[in-house]
Amino acid sequence: MITAPRVHIVFSIGAIIVVILGVGVLSMLSGAASERIATVFLISLIAVTGMGIYSGNSGILSFGHLSFMAIGAYAASLLTVPARMKSATLPNLPDWLAATELSLLSAVVIAVVFAGFVALLIGLAIGRLEGSAATIATLCLLIIVHGVIIGWRDVTRGAQTFFGVPRETTIWVAAAGCIVALILARMYRDSKSGLRLRAGRENAIAARAIGINIRRERLYAWVLSAAVMALSGALMAHFLGAFSPKKFFFVDTFFLLAMLIVGGMTTITGAFTGAASITVVTEVLRRLEGGFDLGALQIPPIFGTTQIGIGLIILIAMFRKADGLAGLKEWEERVFAKKAKTPALSGAAAATAVSADSPTLDARNITRRFGGLTALDNVSIRVAPGEIAGLIGPNGSGKTTLLNILSGVLAPDAGTIMRGDRDMSAIAPHAITSFGIARTFQNIRLFPTLSVYQNVLVAAISANQSKDAERRVQFALGRLELTDLAQKDAGTLSYGDQRRVEIARALACGPSLLFLDEPAAGMNREETDRLMQTLRALRDELGIGVLLVDHDMALINQLCDRMVVLNEGRLIAEGTPAEIRKNPLVIEAYIGRTNRGKIESPVPLHGA
Ligand code: ADP
Ligand code: MG
Predict the structure, then answer these.
(1) DSSP-assigned letters across all residues of 206-253
(2) Residue 63 belongs to some domain of the structure
(3) CATH code at 556?
(4) pLDDT > 70: what percent of the chain?
(5) Which regions of 228-314 does DSSP assign to beta strands (E)?
(6) Structural domain range at position 398
(7) Which among 531, 461, 464, 543 has a CA at the least distance from the CA of 503?
(8) Contact criterion met (CB below 8 Å) for 69 and 230
(9) Looking at the domain assignment, is residue 351 inside a domain?
(10) How far apart are CA 531 and CA 260, in angstroms?
(11) Would you place residue 596 in the very low, low, confident or very high pLDDT band (cuts 50, 70, 90)?
């Protein structure tokens, strides 16, 4: 399923075909030299697009992608080089490979599948790493694959030039490959998997809380991007006719990364912008590199002008626009942004009620330490189906930590958590939605560069495999009064609106139990009152239970059937709001903290 409006995809694919064919025609008309430059440009564009599929969507920069280009180049070439040539240059090849002589198309397909398979094996290992460790691992991959190519002389000719490859990559072959790669990348970006991966890039903790298995989505992107790199490598080999392992090492990694970073790695628009601008600049600098006359002044040849120039351009681009020249949106997303409308809430959009026998949440004897600090000390808490329970306590008393443990973000050091008769004490963070639980965060965790609609949609398609995702999205947007803001980027909204998007996103998961961590912080009185009505309606109409942390006592008092009070990690009281107000331990906990006898006002936005 494609998650973007159809018009975006249609215009994008149309533009890709027109522009790439346009590049082909123009370069053919302007002579053999331009045709060569344009062919290399198109092959590079395939590679940049391939790198972007992984790095752009996952947010992890990769230095290792040229290894897949190398694998594609060698694998495809071994299949196309004529048998008599192979018997001369590679006498020790296995017989079946020595005798194989395939067409370019079949060789490319096999090389691409092979590279995808290798990437799958490598990805299973590298996928366990996060952030900069993952990037370093990709660098190691580049060096390892380079080493293997150099060492595996019988098949690769080692460090020597691999030659005799049929030069079958014409400008039109490159254009065809480019169109395929760009369309694949564009479709992936707005596929379910692409949207989930982008959500994970924007906020990993929130992505897991709506059921996204980030590691798995990364692996899909990794394999697809490796396959596209292999396509680029195979075409490059059949363009050059001869190449050595150097071709797929640091220098070209640098140039392709330059294209990726300067253009902007998260979009196809960025890949094109980056590849085009770096190609133009490289051509200009390369001419200057040989030395030239400036009037009376003779500039001597300066070796390395091109690299230095490109390095400076990356620096300038990153200072001026960290997201690259094209930014974070596709051109068609900008052009159509104003006209896009969210489908109106139809009559069918009412959500189904949560079944009356949704299980009780029962946490017993939960303890959690952070170093020497015991943030939670033997706390037990129950939330009955359809109940709105309040969780209060002074700052730092462990409320957020408790929600983090109950939602699988943190593991308890001791204690058990049951939902009905299912044990959820040691689940992976992304498994929480399968227990019918969704949550919001004290410090807002949206996917800021995705639209409000996409924020909610990605939850609906990830948390719950049932087919009614679109209906849950419409219901959640309607209920939280966000329909008018649906096309805005979530990160641009006011705090109050952002909190409502978080609740809508949680609601779209189709939960029977909601955890809300200070949902009214940053809201004015009127917004808070509306939130109160919404929560009450969700409970009354759908039977959704709520565990609510807030400092707004008016909200808590009016909404909650029952309250639990934490102080310094210990549960000190439990009861109806009226009982709690009279409880001496509670009064002391608050007076002891504030010396003013009243409950603290909303706290700054911190904590998980
Ligand atoms: P509350 O939400 O009630 O204000 P928290 O649960 O955020 O309280 O914090 C409880 C205590 O645990 C605080 O002292 C806090 O500093 C500490 N704490 C919370 N999360 C972490 C963490 N990830 N690492 C270390 N200490 C933490
Ligand atoms: Mg907190």
Answers:
(1) HHHHTT--HHHHHHHHHHHHHHHHHHHHHHHHHHHS-B-GGGGSHHHH
(2) yes
(3) 3.40.50.300
(4) 94
(5) 292-294, 297-299
(6) 361-436+511-605
(7) 531
(8) yes
(9) no
(10) 43
(11) very low
Q: Using the 8-state DSSP alphabet, how is residue 358 labeled?
A: P
* Euclidean distance between CA atoms 189 and 512, whole angstroms: 31
Q: Which of 272, 300, 335 is the last residue of a domain?
A: 335
Q: How far is the CA of 485 from the centre of ligand 2 (A)?
A: 28
Tell whether 388 and 471 lie within a shared domain.
no
Closest residue by Cα to atom 17, ligand 1, is: 375
Ligand nearest to the CA of 399: 1
Alpha carbon of 202 to ligand 1 centroid (Å): 23
Tell me the CA–centroid distance for residue 406 and ligand 2, in Å.
Answer: 14
| Ligand 1 neighbour 395 (Cβ under 6 A) | yes
C-alpha neighbours within 13 Å on the C-beta side of residue 39: 23
pTM, whole model, 2 decimals?
0.92
The CB of 375 under 6 Å from ligand 1? The reply is: yes
First-residue to last-residue Cα distance in the chain: 33
**Element holding 566 (H helix, E strand):** strand 562-567
Residue 489 is classified by DSSP as B
- CA of 566, nearest ligand number: 1
The ligand with the least distance to the CA atom of 379 is 1
Domain count, the chain: 3
CA dist 436 → 101, 393, 439, 596 (Å): 56, 26, 10, 40
Interatomic CA distance for residues 199 and 191, integer angstroms: 12
Looking at the predicted structure, is the pLDDT value of residue 289 above 90?
Answer: no
Residue 396 Cβ contacting ligand 1 at under 6 Å: yes
Ligand 2 midpoint to CA 507 (Å) = 21
The structure tokens 């808490």 sit at 381
Q: Torsion-angle region of residue 165: left (phi > 0), alpha (psi -120 to 50) or beta?
A: beta
Going by CA atoms, what residue is nearest to atom 27 of ligand 1?
Answer: 370
Residues 397 and 503 in one domain: no
Q: How confident is the prediction for the chain on average, in pLDDT?
A: 91
Per-residue pLDDT reduced to its tens digit, 22-72: 999 999 999 999 999 999 999 999 999 999 999 999 999 999 999 999 999
Q: Are residues 309 and 194 in the same domain?
A: yes
